[in-house]
TrEMBL record:
MF (Gene Ontology): acetyl-CoA carboxylase activity; ATP binding; carboxyl- or carbamoyltransferase activity
Keywords, alphabetical: ATP-binding, Fatty acid biosynthesis, Fatty acid metabolism, Lipid biosynthesis, Lipid metabolism, Nucleotide-binding, Transferase
GO annotation (BP), single: malonyl-CoA biosynthetic process
Pfam families, per the entry: ACCA (PF03255)
Taxonomic source organism: Peptococcus niger
Pathway: Lipid metabolism; malonyl-CoA biosynthesis; malonyl-CoA from acetyl-CoA: step 1/1
Record has Lipid biosynthesis as a keyword: yes
The name this protein goes by in its record: acetyl-CoA carboxytransferase
Record domain CoA carboxyltransferase C-terminal: where: 1-235
GO cellular component: a single term: acetyl-CoA carboxylase complex
Length: 263
């Protein structure tokens, strides 16, 4: 499968969305709404539940399964209120000592003028900074398309995992082709250059683990994911909470330095 074919697979409406993974991974999930400022954004689902026996706060970017639902959630592209809701729930999780799990599946933050007027850039930046600074363990799982800063705002965790059929990139192949080649039709070429497949990111040391999907039913896949996430939380919970932000800083600083040095 080529890189661009993988992008198309990640975007497919046939893939399980955040609601499906929440139902399979999280017990007794209770959704919480609103950013306490301007409203509630359905493109980000937030709430509390149990991963195994451990209480967690979950934040999930939601794509629809029908045209009507996709219009309601803007095809998974969050507004500023969505990121502010995430910030509120992350701070609540830290207050009560709950780990944070994020499910990433978005082509990017919503680019409309109302989002820009509402402070989209600052909301994304604050969300990213909050996630990096939490004194509780954080896990992120890319289940579909992870696009641009809109995805990164919920992905800069202690551990980042990806499904085999997911992708993660600083920019979409189409936008990259339009900028670099002045031709969106060269998206396939751009996708290959971006190295956005799960296997690429694992090789680069950005992704900590890849869950194979071929030949496995959904229950097998989610059982494997739940076991891996639970083990990661157990490991991360052994240290001092105050040490977590510094470890995250060194993790991502190391990634940046290595990628600059290695070109």
């Amino acid at each position: 499968m080529t890189a661009y074919e993988r992008v198309r697979l990640a975007r497919s409406g046939e893939r399980a969305n955040a609601q499906a993974f929440l139902g399979a991974l999280i017990d007794n999930f209770h959704e919480l709404h609103g950013d306490r400022l301007s409203g509630d954004d359905p493109a980000i689902i937030g709430g509390i539940g149990y991963l195994g026996r451990r209480p967690v706060t979950v934040l999930a970017q939601q794509r629809g399964r029908s045209l009507a639902e996709n219009e309601r959630v803007r095809f998974g592209m969050p507004m500023p209120s969505g990121y502010r809701k995430a910030i509120r729930l992350m701070r609540q999780a830290e207050k009560f000592g709950r780990p944070v799990l994020t499910l990433v599946d978005t082509p990017g933050a919503y680019p409309g003028i109302e989002a820009e007027n509402g402070g989209q850039a600052s909301a994304i930046a604050e969300c990213l900074a909050t996630l990096l600074g939490l004194r509780v363990p954080t896990l992120s799982l890319v289940i579909g398309e992870g696009g641009s800063g809109g995805a990164l705002a919920l992905a800069a965790a202690d551990r980042l995992y990806m499904l085999e059929g997911s992708v993660f990139s600083v920019i979409s192949p189409e936008a990259c082709a339009a900028i670099l080649f002045k031709d969106r039709d060269r998206a396939e070429e751009a996708a290959a250059a971006l190295r956005l497949q799960a296997a690429d990111l694992h090789e680069l040391g950005i992704c900590d683990g890849v869950f194979g999907e071929k030949g496995r039913d959904f229950s097998q896949l989610t059982a494997d994911i739940q076991q891996t996430l639970s083990a990661a939380l157990q490991e991360l919970s052994k240290g001092k909470p105050a040490d977590l932000p510094g470890k995250r800083y060194r993790r991502y600083r190391k990634m940046g330095v290595e990628h600059v040095v290695n070109g």
